[in-house]
Amino acid sequence: MTTGRIVLLNGAPRSGKSSIVLALQQLASTPWMNLGVDVVVKHVTPGMMRPGIGLRPGRERPDLEDFVSRSYQALYKSIAAHAELGFDVIADLGHHNSYAALDNKWYQYLRELDGLNVMLVGVRCALVEIMRRRALSEGDYLTASDQADVPLPVLRWQEDVHKPGIYDLELDTSILSADQCATKILQMITAGDRFVASDKLIASLE
Q1: What's the CA gap between 73 and 61, in Å, rounded?
Q2: Where are the beta strands (DSSP E) in the chain?
Q3: How confident is the model at residue 106, as a pLDDT?
């Protein structure tokens, strides 16, 4: 049995990761399983422990940090299990290391995917577009009217989510549509490109 391929999308909230996931699922000729922060926070994490792995930068909830770390490890183990059973997996993520005590260099979790075909994609979006999307979104999203022109938590996401910024592909959703982003990902996979970002990040931990 052939192992599945893995695409990890990393970016700030409202950068367009979820839209890329849906677009790729629709455009791909084979099924892709959706595992990521949206699924885990909305459908897996109990209310008392939310936002769980969606905890934003700023050292706001040190009481949740152990739960966050174990949740990420469990998620990556699940991604590995799906791929080992032949499923292609795409996951939307928002990693950072701005915690009160947790040393959460997110690429440590990549060790759970050792030996698998992993493509790391940085999903970027201009701040002005992030704020526009937040203003139009339903749900608990900070907007300009809540705190300031750009709320501090939003700035923290922009500053922290792409550290260290080593990717196989970077996409700017303020320029590209979700379909265009998904197409670029699929084109790289079809071309048989060798993805090296995961190995580089794991090596940086040693």
Answers
A1: 19
A2: 5-10, 32-34, 88-93, 117-124, 169-172
A3: 87
